[in-house]
UniProtKB/TrEMBL annotation:
Required cofactor names: Fe(2+)
Organism: Frankliniella occidentalis
Family matches, as PANTHER family: ALKYLATED DNA REPAIR PROTEIN ALKB HOMOLOG 8
Reported function: Catalyzes the methylation of 5-carboxymethyl uridine to 5-methylcarboxymethyl uridine at the wobble position of the anticodon loop in tRNA via its methyltransferase domain. Catalyzes the last step in the formation of 5-methylcarboxymethyl uridine at the wobble position of the anticodon loop in target tRNA. Has a preference for tRNA(Arg) and tRNA(Glu), and does not bind tRNA(Lys).
Compositionally biased tracts (Polar residues): 526-540
Lineage, top ranks: Eukaryota, Metazoa, Ecdysozoa, Arthropoda, Hexapoda
Pfam families the record matches: 2OG-FeII_Oxy_2 (PF13532), Methyltransf_11 (PF08241), RRM_1 (PF00076)
Cellular-component GO terms for this entry: cytoplasm; nucleus
Record protein name field: tRNA (carboxymethyluridine(34)-5-O)-methyltransferase
Length: 636
C-alpha cells in the first residue's frame, strides 16, 4: 500500500475524503500534526467520548494489534487518540480497521489517521472544569429519596395538567404559563393551577442550608421531563420576566448542564439527582444553560484517573421562578438581555420613525423656503472643492439645493453628483441642470470605490442613533476610492468655543446688540453651514433666548430647542417657521411651525465615530462656526 498517495483499493472512496477533511479539522482543533504517513500514534477521527466511545472500547478494538501505550479520551470531542509501542503495530491496526471497522449500532466505518503525538493529558479529570460559572451553586442531596418520589408522583404525564409536548421534552406549568413562542408569561392570566403545596418546604430547606438571603417565594413553576437522549437547547431564562435567582431541582437522573458565556466559553456542570441548582448573578444573566440531547454524559471515573460515560435515565426537573414586578432588566449582560436587545431594536424603529416625520417629511414641506435661504457657500467647503482635478468625481451626499455644485477651481471640470432625501430639493437641482438623485445616505446608490471626493454637509446630525450616524460615514468610506477624501460637517452642541459665540448665536437679536455683526452675515442669512433653523428670516428669530430654555412639550417626542440659543440637549427638535408665501394651504394669520430633528455633536464625537471605521483616516478635525468638521481620507 502506498500511503503517500493514500491508495488502498479496499477502502471505500468516500472514506478518503472523510479522512482528508478530518485531518484538516482535527489538526486545527488539537494542534497536533496528523497525516497518513505511519507513526505509532493513531487518531480515531470519527468517534470519541461525545459519541459514546469509551476508553475500554478503544482498548478492546486496538489491543489485538499489539501492546497499547496510551489512550487519550477528550471530554467534548468526536475524536480520540491512542498510541502503540511500535509503528508496525499501528500500521497493522490501520490496515485492518481504517474504512473497514463498523462501529456498533451505527452505519459508520472507522476513519483513522496517524498522529505525530497524542495530547498530553496525564489526568483526564483535569480536562473537565471544576468550577461552574460565577453565581452558580449546586446543593447536593437537597431532597431525600422519599421527597423525590412524592414530587415525581405528583404529576401525571399521560394526562398533564397544564402540559405540552415539546420537540425534545415534556413540560407542565404552574402559577403562570411560560409561553415558548414569546419567551414570556402573561401576567394578566395566572393559571388556576398553583405551585403544589408539596413544594412549600423550599424556603425552609434553603434557610437550613444557609441560604436565607433568598427569601424566595416563587410564583411560577415549570416542570420538565426528559427521556434519555432528550435535552433543552441553550437559553437564558428571560431576563425581563424572572427575578434572580432561578432554582431547579433535579430528579430521577444525574445530568450534565452546559453553561456558555458570550465568548463561547463552555463549562459543563454536573447536576446530580436530588440536587438543587441555584442560578444567580452572572450565571443567571450572563451565561446560557442547556442540556445536550444525548444518551450519556462524560464524567470522571470514581478513581478520578480517567473519564467515562454516564448513561442518562428519565429525568424530571422542577424549575422555580419569581415573576418580576415590572418588565425590565438593567443587567450588564446586554447580549443575553431581552430588555436591552428590545431597546436596541425599538431604538432603531423609533429612529426611523423620527427621521421620517421630523426630517424627511419636513424638508419636503419647507423645501422652497429652505432653498431660498441657502445661497452662500461656506469658504472652507469651497476650498475643499477646489482641490479636485478635471475628470474627478465629487459626490455631495445630502446636497440640498446644490449650492456646492460648480465650486471647483478655475479651468477644472469635475463630475459632480448629488444625492438628497428630499425629492423636491433634488428636483430643484435637476432643473438647474445638475445631476442629483433622491436617496438615503445610509444606502448610497453608488458602486464602491468610485468617488475621488465626498461632501456631506449638515446631514449626519439628522440621523437619530449613533449606529445610524456611524453607518452613514461607513457608506461614505465605501464609495470613496483609495486615497479619496471626504469632508463632513455637523452641527456642534457647543455654540461657543473659547467664549466666542458662533454666528448662529450672534444672530440672536439680543446677542446682536452686544456683538459687532460680521460682514459675512450680510451675504447669507444663514451663515451657518448647517441646514439648521439658522436660515430663518430675522422676524422669526426667537428674541427671548435666555429667558426660555429648551422644553419638553408632551406632544412632541423630544425637547424643542429655542433658536439662537446654546443647546441644552444633544437630541432636540429645532423649529422652522414657514414663511407665509411658501405655505401650501394658508390658514390666515396662523404661523406654521415645523420641527426638525437634530443630534448636535459634542467635541470629538464626530472624530471618534470616524476613527471607529477601519478603512479611513481622519486628516483634520475643525470647529467651524458652530459646526464640527472632519476631513477624511480612505486608506490606500
Ligand atoms: O431541566 C432543568 O434543570 C432546566 C430547565 C430550564 O432551564 C428551563 O426550563 O428554563
Ligand atoms: Fe432555563
Ligand atoms: Zn438583562
Amino acid at each position: 500500500m502506498d500511503f503517500k498517495n493514500g491508495e488502498d483499493h479496499h477502502v471505500p472512496k468516500k472514506i478518503f475524503s472523510k479522512q482528508r477533511k478530518a485531518i484538516q479539522n482535527i489538526s486545527a482543533d488539537s494542534k497536533i500534526s496528523l497525516g497518513i504517513e505511519p507513526t505509532k500514534q493513531i487518531v480515531i477521527c470519527n468517534s470519541g467520548l461525545s459519541l459514546g466511545l469509551l476508553e475500554e472500547d478503544v482498548i478492546n478494538i486496538f489491543s489485538p494489534y499489539g501492546p497499547i501505550e496510551a489512550v487519550v479520551m477528550l471530554p467534548d470531542k468526536t475524536y480520540c487518540f491512542m498510541a502503540f509501542h511500535s509503528k508496525e503495530n499501528a500500521l497493522q491496526a490501520y490496515q485492518s480497521l481504517h474504512g473497514k471497522y463498523n462501529f456498533p449500532r451505527s452505519e459508520n466505518l472507522m476513519v483513522l489517521a496517524f498522529a505525530d503525538e497524542v495530547p498530553k493529558v496525564t489526568n483526564p479529570w483535569a480536562t473537565l472544569p471544576r468550577d461552574g460559572p460565577p453565581g452558580l451553586i449546586v446543593l447536593e442531596d437537597f431532597i431525600t429519596s422519599d421527597e423525590e418520589e412524592i414530587l415525581v408522583k405528583l404529576l401525571s404525564w399521560d394526562d398533564p395538567i397544564q402540559g405540552q409536548q415539546l420537540k425534545q421534552r415534556q413540560v407542565q406549568h404552574f402559577g403562570f404559563e411560560f409561553r415558548y413562542g414569546s419567551n414570556d408569561v402573561d401576567r394578566q392570566k395566572p393559571l388556576a393551577q398553583k405551585i403544589p403545596d408539596q413544594c412549600d418546604f423550599l424556603q425552609n430547606r434553603l434557610k437550613k442550608r444557609g441560604f436565607s438571603k433568598w427569601n424566595f417565594y416563587p410564583d411560577q413553576l415549570t416542570v420538565n421531563r426528559y427521556l434519555p437522549g432528550q435535552g433543552i437547547p441553550p437559553h437564558v431564562d428571560t431576563h425581563s420576566v424572572f427575578e434572580d435567582p432561578i432554582l431547579s431541582l433535579s430528579m430521577l437522573s444525574d445530568v450534565v448542564m452546559d453553561f456558555k458565556d458570550a465568548s463561547g466559553h463552555k463549562i459543563p456542570v454536573f447536576l446530580p439527582r436530588r440536587s438543587l441548582t441555584v442560578m444567580s448573578g452572572e450565571s443567571r444573566f450572563g451565561w446560557t444553560h442547556g442540556i445536550a440531547s444525548r444518551m450519556h454524559d462524560v464524567i470522571c471515573t470514581d478513581d478520578k484517573k480517567g473519564l467515562t460515560l454516564l448513561p442518562r435515565e428519565e429525568r424530571v426537573s422542577y424549575t422555580f421562578r419569581l415573576l418580576r414586578s415590572k418588565k425590565e432588566c438593567f443587567c450588564s449582560y446586554a447580549w443575553l438581555c431581552d430588555n436591552q436587545k428590545q431597546n436596541l431594536y425599538q431604538q432603531q424603529l423609533d429612529a426611523i420613525q423620527l427621521e421620517k416625520q421630523y426630517v424627511r417629511e419636513v424638508y419636503e414641506e419647507i423645501s422652497s423656503h429652505f432653498s431660498e435661504t441657502r445661497h452662500t457657500p461656506w469658504p472652507n467647503i469651497v476650498e475643499f472643492c477646489k482641490t479636485f482635478k478635471t475628470g474627478q468625481i465629487l459626490l455631495d451626499v445630502g446636497c440640498g439645493n446644490g449650492k456646492y455644485f460648480g465650486n471647483q477651481a478655475e479651468n477644472v471640470s469635475l463630475f459632480e453628483i448629488g444625492l438628497d432625501a428630499s425629492a423636491h430639493l433634488a428636483d430643484m437641482c435637476t432643473k438647474r441642470g445638475v445631476e442629483v438623485l433622491t436617496g438615503n445616505c445610509l444606502n448610497l446608490p453608488f458602486r464602491s470605490s468610485i468617488a475621488d471626493g465626498v461632501l456631506c454637509i449638515a446631514v449626519i446630525h439628522h440621523l437619530a442613533t449613533h449606529e445610524r450616524r456611524r453607518r452613514a460615514v461607513q457608506e461614505i468610506a465605501r464609495v470613496l476610492c483609495k486615497g479619496g477624501r471626504a469632508l463632513i460637517y455637523v452641527w456642534a452642541r457647543d455654540q461657543r468655543l473659547q467664549d466666542k459665540m458662533s454666528t448662529y448665536l450672534k444672530q440672536n437679536r439680543k446677542n446682536r446688540q452686544n456683538t459687532a455683526i460680521q460682514s459675512a452675515f450680510k451675504g447669507d442669512k444663514n451663515n451657518s453651514v448647517t441646514g439648521s433653523g439658522t436660515s430663518q428670516s430675522e422676524n422669526n428669530l426667537c428674541t427671548s433666548a435666555d429667558s426660555k430654555s429648551c422644553e419638553f412639550t408632551g406632544s412632541l417626542p423630544l425637547p424643542v430647542h429655542v433658536n439662537r440659543t446654546n443647546f441644552k440637549h444633544s437630541d432636540i427638535l429645532v423649529p422652522w417657521k414657514l414663511k407665509e408665501k411658501h405655505r401650501q394651504e394658508s390658514n390666515e394669520g396662523e404661523q406654521q411651525t415645523f420641527y426638525r430633528y437634530y443630534h448636535v455633536f459634542e467635541e470629538d464625537e464626530l472624530t471618534r465615530m470616524c476613527i471607529e471605521i477601519p478603512q479611513i483616516q481622519v486628516l483634520e478635525t475643525k470647529y467651524d462656526q458652530g459646526n464640527w468638521s472632519v476631513l477624511l481620507r480612505k486608506l490606500p
